[in-house]
Write a structure and sequence with these properties.
With 761 residues, this protein is of the alpha+beta class. It contains 15 helices and 32 strands. Strand 11 and strand 12 form a beta hairpin.
Length: 761
């Protein structure tokens, strides 16, 4: 204590003699989300007129320090970091306006995909990051682009001279950034291994600055040689590794020990013990308040070190003068690219030339995310260059193309007998046009399928795609039946389907997709008209082959493929079907009927599933589905019933054959209550009503009887607990189906009940 007082008095005397020449540097440590506390430190320093002449930072400290150096006030930084918009960015959540169903139109049950190159080892296909940084990377560009321009890309010419550090793990060197693109330097400093996708700068791959120097006090001294250093620290060195703790082992392998101290003669350090997860951005306000309070507690010591003060009006004027240099974010339609070939670059640039007269920030974001949503693009890192001659910013995109081949694996694992595996292989080719060949395979007792598509995408002013396809589907509804108590033998129903065709699609209003398609199809239904059948008996059958043409509008921007809690799914399909039916069935022992008929009809199907209420802990959704068709009666009851469009509002329903939920024309409506006690965990309570215009039943001869108009209605109740893991949902489901077999079910599931499309229903 005596020694500290001596040094403080010595510093005070020296500074008094030197008057206003005293310079103050602020060093901000890394520390993940805990480093948000640095905002409170800066806020307290500025409110108390403590000068900040230089800033250095590492990792998250580089981000906070960079914002201050770029001309943002502590309050503006706090407003940014604690905003709901930034929380979405931090967690990689996509806003509706940046969702492009045209680019991501094929939902599948995949858990994950591995991009592979045939002549490279498998390890090069393993994912290197868990966080999708495309939103954060664009946010970095947005908040720093104007400061880059105002400083002419020189970090010494920012409002506050600034340095940040990143780790060159190949050469085992620390990189100090003092010029260039601020967003690029800070992103390099924040690239936490296995969390962020790493970026290259001048052919060097950089990672988190905290690996080699998490408290760049020495960089402050070497770069600026200030009289006093004020350190803000929320980090500590890794604990001793433990044999059963993989994370502690990796942390010790990757990170060098940093020195979190400042000698009394050099200044003061504010050490903060704040317990926030590395990537938890929900406690920003608490962290800022903590940093502020800790700084206020240390204020007397700080003022002893720093007798000099800064006039708040002078600081406000300096900040205003710097910010006045910044030019508005107006973008040139001419973008530059790197990392890809000339022809691939032409494909990317063509998408920015669409509506080239719209180049403000919001519309440039739309173009950026449209390119990023392409499955042939793996990663983009954006920077900008200001063009004085045009008075606009030119967007530079460093693009990593997706590997040519991708393998996807998924399906559904369940305690119910619906286990189905899924594997898909995709080949991507990107040039001035883009094309993809994809084949998938479903395998299981209940469902088997394969589908092959070849897609050509042309990036004209109105982009479009052309897609020929081929598919085989088989459902075995006899083997998948289960209920809590099985007392009734389920009906034997197997459906087989083959179709081949083409579709043509283009973007439509409200980020939706409009497509037209043609299919030639052949369908076969196997069943027993006699409920007292034995498996050894020869089954009855109906074959139906023909043609269908349709026009579809679809939009899907829900947050999950299944068990959503936000977003909208809109589907409208108008279709004409024509074909020939052949049926062979038994009315009674020894009485077999063979019949052929021609059929043609139209069908319109509408679905709107949306969540208009979506808060942190609760979402409310509704489901409205309408089918209007004039399908004629087939030769018998089962042939007709199987051909009808089903109502399947919950995931399990698509695995069941339920006669009461099939009709020619019907209305389905439901409500979804989703409680979210913690992130990614849902408790779902849902109820649905099915109202058929008429309900068909079988007569004594196996034919069809129609009910009176609106005579029957049925309901579905569903309760589920769902956890959305990184690769797929884990759910416990209890479902009740009115007047059906099975009428109730309980199951534990992992994965998705998403199957290849049927030909026309």
């Amino acid at each position: 204590m005596i020694l500290r007082t001596f040094f403080l008095n010595l510093i005070f005397i020296l500074l008094f003699l030197n008057g206003n020449s005293q310079k103050v540097g602020v060093v901000l440590s890394g520390g993940g989300s805990s480093a948000i506390a640095h905002i409170g430190v800066l806020k307290a320093l500025e409110e108390n007129n403590i000068p900040i002449d230089y800033i250095t930072g590492s990792s998250m400290g580089a981000f906070i320090g960079g914002l201050y150096a770029a001309g943002y006030t502590p309050q503006e930084i706090e407003d940014l970091i604690t905003s709901p918009e930034f929380e979405k960015v931090a967690y990689g959540e996509l806003d509706d306006e940046f969702s492009f169903f045209f680019k991501q139109r094929n939902l599948d049950p995949s858990f994950f995909g591995l991009s592979i190159t045939p002549n490279k080892p498998l390890r090069s296909s393993l994912p290197t990051n868990v966080y999708d940084s495309k939103f954060f990377d664009l946010e970095l560009l947005t908040v720093f682009a104007q400061a880059e321009m105002a400083s002419n890309y020189n970090f010494d010419s920012l409002l506050v001279p600034f340095r940040c550090v990143a780790s060159d793990v190949y050469n085992k060197e620390l990189k100090v950034f003092k010029s260039g693109h601020i967003n690029q330097a800070i992103r390099a400093s924040m690239t936490y291994p296995f969390y962020f996708y790493p970026i290259e700068i001048d052919s060097v791959l950089y990672f988190d600055g905290g690996l080699y120097n998490n408290f760049p006090k020495d960089i402050m001294e070497e770069s600026f040689d200030p009289d006093i250093i004020i350190g803000s620290n929320v980090a500590s060195n890794p604990q001793k590794p433990e044999a059963d703790d993989l994370f502690s082992q990796l942390e010790n392998l990757l990170a060098e020990k940093s020195e979190y101290k400042i000698d009394p003669e050099d200044g003061i350090i504010i050490n903060m013990d704040i317990d926030i997860g590395n990537f938890d951005f929900t406690k920003g306000k608490e962290a800022i308040a903590y940093g502020y309070n800790q700084t206020i507690k240390a204020l007397e010591d700080i003022k002893e070190c720093v007798p000099r003060t800064v006039n708040p009006d002078t600081l406000r004027l300096r900040r205003q003068q710097f910010n006045d240099i910044k030019e508005p974010l107006e973008f040139s339609s001419d973008v530059t690219t790197s990392g890809i070939s000339k022809y691939q670059s032409n494909f990317i640039k063509a998408q920015f030339l669409q509506n080239k007269d719209k180049n403000d920030l919001e519309y440039t974001k739309i173009k950026y995310f449209k390119v990023y949503s392409d499955d042939k693009v793996k990663f983009i890192f954006p920077t900008v260059t200001y063009l004085p001659s045009k008075g606009k910013y030119q967007l530079n995109l460093d693009i990593t193309k997706e590997k040519d081949f991708e393998v996807s694996i998924g399906g559904i694992l369940s305690t119910a007998p619906i286990n189905t595996g899924y594997i898909a292989l995709k080949y991507n080719n990107l040039g001035e046009t883009a094309w993809t060949i994809k084949g998938n395979l479903y395998f299981g007792q209940f469902y088997q399928s394969t589908k092959i598509t070849a897609t050509l995408e042309v990036p004209l002013k109105v982009p479009f795609y052309w897609e020929p396809f081929f598919a085989l589907n088989k459902y075995d509804f006899f083997k998948n039946r289960t209920s809590i108590v099985d007392e009734v033998q389920p009906p034997f129903i197997i459906t087989r389907e083959f179709y081949i065709g083409n579709s043509f699609g283009l973007p439509f209003v409200l980020k939706s997709l409009f497509k037209v398609d043609y299919k030639y199809f052949r369908e076969e239904y196997l069943y027993y008209t006699n409920p007292e059948f034995e498996i050894k008996d020869t089954s009855d059958y109906t074959q139906f082959f023909g043609h269908t043409v349709g026009a579809t509008i679809e939009k899907f921007n829900q947050n999950y493929k299944q068990y959503a809690s936000s977003g909208t799914h809109l589907y409208l399909d108008a279709r004409f079907i024509i074909g020939n039916e052949t049926s062979n069935y038994t009315i009674s022992p020894g009485n077999t009927v063979y019949n052929q008929q021609k059929h043609s009809w139209g069908n319109i199907h509408f679905l709107l599933s949306a969540y208009p209420v979506n808060t942190k802990y609760y979402s409310f959704g509704f489901d409205l589905e309408v089918n209007a068709g004039n399908m004629p009666i087939f030769s018998n009851y089962f042939g007709t019933l199987i051909s009808l469009v089903p109502y399947q509002p919950i995931p399990e329903a698509s695995t069941l054959f339920q006669p009461n939920f099939r009709a020619n024309s019907w209305l389905g409506a439901g409500v979804m209550n989703v409680f979210k006690p913690i992130k990614k965990l849902q408790i779902r309570l849902e109820a649905y009503l099915f109202q058929p215009a008429t309900h068909i039943t079988a007569d004594d001869q196996g034919g069809v009887k129609d009910s009176q108009l609106f005579e029957f209605h049925y309901f579905i109740l569903s309760a589920a607990v769902v956890y959305h893991s990184r690769i797929g949902p884990i759910s416990v489901n209890f479902n009740y189906y009115d007047d059906s077999f099975p009428n109730q079910s309980i199951s534990l599931n992992f994965g998705y009940t998403i199957f290849n499309n049927a030909a026309w229903k």
